[in-house]
């Protein structure tokens, strides 16, 4: 208790007490004004209405009786204002609660707290504990058959299905920036990467023989994909969380996974898993686009070259899907829902990839060491113009515009293909507007950007290309 504050408070109360005491008459005495015997008008300032002892006592009765008694005690014995041996103004021991009642109160509050739902950090930590112990092979958990954590259900074996269910719930907590950082501080990335390796070990891993029976199966891909989605959500537009991922070497990990996927598909003549590719690229984009450390790691691990191989393979598979669906009836049994879903996810992955490349160039235009990873590579320039622009023009147009302004991607073959694709885009968007099928601002942007870029090429290059590159 603040001694100075109590002294001030007691001094104030004492003053009030003294004022009241000054007004309190002795018994039987009537207070009258000290004025001339001559009658005066009631409005005279010297006139004071008589007050009896009863009316004075009524004023005291308005106050708290215990307060009045305490003030009287302090007035009679000023030693009460002296601080105790420990500096306290009040003997707190006289206010101590009965131990039995205190124990009952604590028990009540504990029960109330147990009925409250866990907060977000507690939910995140509990899921991470489940994942970590399950990967270690010694986890039992509580589950009620839903995606929510049940803290009262009976213990049940924590299996792969429950792992996937909790990983599906986890992103709901991580959209909030603070929760994303808390997830990182709980070692979320190392824990989830260990789980990823269990269900989808790299080709170079010596643990493949000890891996889960779901390794590299449809279910294993689902778990691995969901793990990447969780990390991507936690890091998206969250610079503080991104810094933690670099401590776990997440960029080299993802680049290695992309390289392994490409190698497996080429070796086994198998198709990419669209869902896994989509979330791998989503997470890689989140932690590299505007992160110097992330871009350095991408360059150091030969990321642009591996991304280029994956982009080419994705585009090839997408073309095969499109050719197949174009020549197949909807009722054909060969076209399954799983294949259609994989095609959709693979298309999303491809769009994310060309968007990431474009963002790295555009957002880091003042950092030559980062933007040149893709601009100086003629393969990437031609791929973005020839394969990226027709399928995702809104993202690739920005890449091409930025490249041409700095005299990159200006070889004759590139410019010829670029002009052809720009004319197709303009024709398509113009026909769409004429049919009134779309009046979206997005389509207007693509049409305007394509038209301006085509005019820029015709004005500044005119069929002749200057292959000299200009630096920033």
Rounded to an integer in angstroms, the radius of gyration calculated over CA atoms is 39 Å
**Shape from CA axes?**
elongated
Which residues sit in consecutive blocks of at least 5 with pLDDT less than 50? 25-48, 139-155, 206-213, 467-472
Order of adjacent strands in the largest pleated sheet? 1-2
Biggest sheet descriptor: 2 strands, antiparallel
Beta-strand percent range? under 5%
Proportion of helical residues: 55-70%
Q: What series of H and E elements makes up the topology?
A: HHHHHEEHHHHHHHHHHHHHHHH
Q: Which whole number gives the mean pLDDT? A: 79
- Figure out the total of helices: 21
The assigned structural class equals mainly alpha
Spatial gap, N to C terminus = 66 Å
Compute the number of strand runs.
2
Task: Write structural notes for this entry.
- Residues 25-48, 139-155, 206-213 and 467-472 have low confidence and may be disordered.
- The protein has 472 residues and is mainly alpha-helical.
- Helix 8 runs parallel beside helix 11.
- It has a two-stranded antiparallel sheet with strand order 1-2.
- Helices cover 66% and strands 1% of the residues.
């Amino acid at each position: 208790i603040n001694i100075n504050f109590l002294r001030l408070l007691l001094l104030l109360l004492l003053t009030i007490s003294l004022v009241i005491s000054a007004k309190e008459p002795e018994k039987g005495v009537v207070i009258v004004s000290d004025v001339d015997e001559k009658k005066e008008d009631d409005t005279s300032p010297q006139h004071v209405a008589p007050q009896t002892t009863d009316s004075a006592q009524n004023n005291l009765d308005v106050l708290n009786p215990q307060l009045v008694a305490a003030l009287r005690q302090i007035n009679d014995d000023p030693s009460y204002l002296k601080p105790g041996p420990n500096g306290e103004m009040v003997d707190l021991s006289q206010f101590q609660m009965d131990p039995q009642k205190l124990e009952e109160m604590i028990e009540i509050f504990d029960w109330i707290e147990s009925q409250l739902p866990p907060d977000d950090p507690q939910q995140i930590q509990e899921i991470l504990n489940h994942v970590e112990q399950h990967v270690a092979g010694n986890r039992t958990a509580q589950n009620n058959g839903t995606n929510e954590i049940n803290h009262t259900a009976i213990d049940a074996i924590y299996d792969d299905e429950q792992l996937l269910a909790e990983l599906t719930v986890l992103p709901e907590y991580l959209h909030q920036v603070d929760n994303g950082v808390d997830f990182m501080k709980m070692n979320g990335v190392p824990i989830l990467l260990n789980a990823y390796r269990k269900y989808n070990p790299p080709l170079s891993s010596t643990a493949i023989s000890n891996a889960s029976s779901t390794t590299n199966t449809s279910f294993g891909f689902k778990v691995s994909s969901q793990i990447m989605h969780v990390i991507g959500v936690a890091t998206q537009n969250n610079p503080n969380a991104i810094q933690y991922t670099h401590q776990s070497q997440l960029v080299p990990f993802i680049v290695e996974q992309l390289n392994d996927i490409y190698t497996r598909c080429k070796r086994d003549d198998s198709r990419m898993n669209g869902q896994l590719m989509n979330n791998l690229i989503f997470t890689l984009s989140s932690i590299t686009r505007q992160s110097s450390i992330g871009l350095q790691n991408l360059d150091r691990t030969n990321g642009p070259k591996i991304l280029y191989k994956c982009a080419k393979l994705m585009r090839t598979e997408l073309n095969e899907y499109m050719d197949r669906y174009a020549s197949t009836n909807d009722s054909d049994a060969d076209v399954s829902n799983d294949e259609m879903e994989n095609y959709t996810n693979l298309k999303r992955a491809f769009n994310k990839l060309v968007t990431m490349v474009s963002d790295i160039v555009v957002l880091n235009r003042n950092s030559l060491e980062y933007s040149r990873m893709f601009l100086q590579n003629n393969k990437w320039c031609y791929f973005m113009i020839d394969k990226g622009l027709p399928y995702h023009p809104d993202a690739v147009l920005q890449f091409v515009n930025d490249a041409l302004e700095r005299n990159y991607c200006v070889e004759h073959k590139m410019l010829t293909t670029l002009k052809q694709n720009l004319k197709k885009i303009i024709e398509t968007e113009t026909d769409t507007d004429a049919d009134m099928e779309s009046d979206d601002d997005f389509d207007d942007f693509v049409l305007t950007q394509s038209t301006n870029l085509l005019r820029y090429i015709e004005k500044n290059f005119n069929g002749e290309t200057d292959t000299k590159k200009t630096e920033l």
